[in-house]
Amino acid sequence: MSLQRKASPLFGQRGSALLAALCFAAVLGLSLASYLALTYQSLSISNRNMQGTRGIELAETGLEEALYSLNKSTWTGWTLSSGVARMTLSGFNYDSGVTGSVDLTVNSYDGSLGARTITAASTLTLADGTTVNRTLSTSATSAALFTNAVAATGTSGVVNISSGGGLIDSYNSTAGNYTAGTAGFSSIVTGASVKMTTAQIKGYVATPPNASGNVALSYASAAKLIGPTTPTTLKIDPARQSTSPYQNSFDVKTPTGAGTSISAPTGSLRIGTSGGTVETFYGTLDGSGNFDIENSGVLYVDGPVVLVIPGNFYVGAYYGGGSIVIGSGGSLQVFVGGYSYIAGNGITNTTKLAKNCAIFGTNTVSGYYCLFYTATPYYGVVYTPKSDVYLYGYGSTFSVYGSVAGRNVYAYPNSYFGVHYDTDLRNTTFSGIDTPYAVSNWTETTN
């Protein structure tokens, strides 16, 4: 008799469970390996992104170094050849054994090759020997001087707008002449403190913080500070106030060199080359250094002109009448060492472009002033960082279409006036001002 042993059901179940466990372990191992690989890859990408950010910061440091050398005309440590300056900054050490360097190139550093451009190429070397590279390129352009409608440049400079009905707003002369109904809200009034009586500012007020940490702004009940979305019931909009004022302050250097000497005209006098593109330099012949246009004297500016006045600059100050007329192809920069008094028939800028007329104060001590007492609108700019500016006006037709910057700026009672800021001045530089080079934007190349 033969006996046949049957397999235990439990034994088959154990084999199946072992097989399932092995399959699960294999899947888990593959998942874990994939997760570890993904984690490692994410860590590597995150690390490279972090090093890339460092590379951008290092390249920006290089741009700052190049700008410093441009503005100071200091090229110690640079290699100069055929209008191109090169230098490498090294010795940058970071955590995890990362080191860095940046190669700088300034094309046309001396202006011999046209526009000045800067390239900053940073290299970060990681502990494993791999590198991360970032390259920034930019054009170095002169910074704009007139970034605000009205600015008091003195350490304790005051903008006092006590004038009746004063209006400060903005427009862009490249889009056409000023129109009150379409005036913008881009004007900025800045100083150590700002005072308003009945003025209306369509824009912003910016001052350093006062003792309470607020904007140093005082105003009467009739004053307004508004923006395009300010509720009609709100007269002084807190959203239009800032404790971070910014006003470029650059040195004014009196132009020197050979030039034509002229005296203030008693009749008609034409200066400048009509249709010319190169500025004509004029100095004053008056033994006192003053330039005083009176009575029927008219100075016609037919081309680009730079006028240097060591003493005082008067237009119709004592006997009325005198005037300056800037023609359609003209522009005028006046450098004044003493007082400026624009009265009589004032300055007529027929181009109606603020960038075509500028009064610069070259005095290095306070006590002088630039004063307007004329009915003729002034299309131009004033920059007298050591002198006060007085905007009296004469009649309701006087306004400034441009920008005003002085040690203190005052607009007195009963003198209607307006300052209509020309926003095109933010793109304008003047040959007579030693403005530093700046970077407005840059492009990046990732290697």
Structure description:
The chain has one helix at residues 9-72; strands at 79-81, 84-93, 99-107, 117-125, 131-139, 141-142, 150-152, 158-161, 167-171, 187-190, 193-196, 200-206, 217-219, 224-226, 241-242, 260-262, 268-271, 280-284, 291-293, 298-301, 304-309, 313-315, 323-326, 331-336, 340-342, 347-349, 357-361, 369-372, 378-384, 388-391, 400-406, 409-411, 418-422, 437-438, 443-446. The mean pLDDT is 88. The relative contact order is 0.13. A nine-stranded parallel sheet has the order 13-11-8-32-30-28-25-22-19, with no helix packed on it. Strands 1-2-3-4-5-35 form a six-stranded antiparallel sheet. With 447 residues, the protein is mainly β. Helices cover 14% and strands 36% of the residues. The protein has two domains: 53-143 and 436-446; 150-427, no CATH class.
Class of secondary structure makeup = mainly beta
| Shape estimate | elongated
How many discrete domains? Answer: 2
Strand content: 35-45%
Major β-sheet strand ordering: 13-11-8-32-30-28-25-22-19
Number of strands: 35
**What does the average pLDDT come to?**
88
Taking pLDDT < 50 over at least 5 consecutive residues as the criterion, the unreliable ranges are none
By DSSP (H or I, 4+ residues per run), the number of helices equals: 1
Measured on Cα atoms, how large is the radius of gyration?
A: 33 Å
Outline the biggest β-sheet: 9 strands, parallel
- Helix content class: 10-25%
The end-to-end distance, rounded to whole angstroms, is 87 Å
